[in-house]
Design a protein that fits this description.
single chain; alpha+beta; four-stranded mixed β-sheet; three-stranded antiparallel β-sheet; 4 helices; binds iron/sulfur cluster
Length: 175
Amino acid sequence: MLSSILSKNTCAACKFCCSFRRQSLWETPLFPPEIAEKLQKTNEYGVTGEFAPASDGARDAHESQNAYRLVLENNYRTDDPEEEVPCTFLDPERGCILKPEDKPFDCSIWPLRIMDKGGKLVIALTPTCPAIGATPSKALVDLVQGGLGEKIFEYAKTHPYIVKEYREGFPVVYF
Ligand code: SF4
């Protein structure tokens, strides 16, 4: 959804947002039940994932029974807090192996996030994306204000689990 300002090649070469330190596990993608069910069994990708209801140890109030999180906790090999574990569906050469219809919405809009800021929903920029940077560019703001922001708000109405609690340092792009 951000392909006009963030090329697939750039993302494939980076993969920053597809690897997680323990402190970043709150950012792991959430999957709708039907996709999680498909991906935990033998599937066309030849890769199966481990999933748990997002409501088990929900990371914030918006997560619900209607979403599943990818379980990565068992993949760490050291106690080093800087250790990064890749998403199960990240191929080191090709990037994300999931087709658009199976890819979590969260991943499609990265580094944007819809967040609950004191009871008000906002679209904010995750400031750690190496390609986009910490400050919203005019091109990003134009993209969000030109329709993407409303599209995210609409999706969140039927998939409220994509809403994260607001975090300090995430510039608000749209509300
Ligand atoms: S589902 Fe795909 S895009 Fe999302 S974190 Fe995993 S590899 Fe990355």
